[in-house]
Amino acid sequence: MAVLDNHTTVPDAATGDALNALAETLASLSRADIVGDDGSRVEMPEDVVALLRDAVTTLATGRAVALTVVDTVLTTQEVADLLGVSRPTVVRLLDEGEIPYTRPKNHRRILLADVLTYRARLRAIQREALREMAEDVQDDDLTGFVRTR
Predict the structure, then answer these.
(1) Phi and psi angles of residue 117, each rounded to the nearest 5 degrees, phi first
(2) What is the pLDDT of residues 46-66, one digit of tens each?
(3) Are 60 and 16 in contact (CB under 8 A)?
(4) In order of start, what are the domains of the chain with their CATH numbers?
(5) What is the distance of C-alpha 45 from the center of its chain?
(6) pLDDT digits (tens, 9 = 90+) for 107-149
(7) What angle do CA 71, 72, 75 make, to 5 degrees?
(8) How do 8-10 and 2-5 pair as beta strands?
């Protein structure tokens, strides 16, 4: 694997088989231990195992992985970047009470955990809407109206 900088890793063909084997092993694990050269063991937290699983699975597909450090308290612009929306949209969400925040001085501060909770809630709503739309298509038998070329 080539390392572009200290946080980005690009897989190469030589590591493909090893990455695939490791990805298969990690897919079934919720916990793992790291064994040191001296035989000492340290249990990895579940979140770290999940992060490692995601990274290795991505590397096994031939894609690069970048590890980014994110503060646990974010600015409105950082939240906008994370959610893929504009900063004014984030300010509106905050003002409407969709995402909790504090305002210690003149600037809003948002906890990363609250942003991730909001994003998960939004994705669940979107999945439910898609499920309902799919059911409506099946119930109304609208599949015959789809044109194909």
Answers:
(1) -65, -45
(2) 888 988 899 989 988 888 888
(3) yes
(4) 2-66 (no CATH), 73-141 (1.10.1660)
(5) 17
(6) 999 999 999 999 999 999 999 999 998 888 877 765 555 555 5
(7) 70
(8) antiparallel
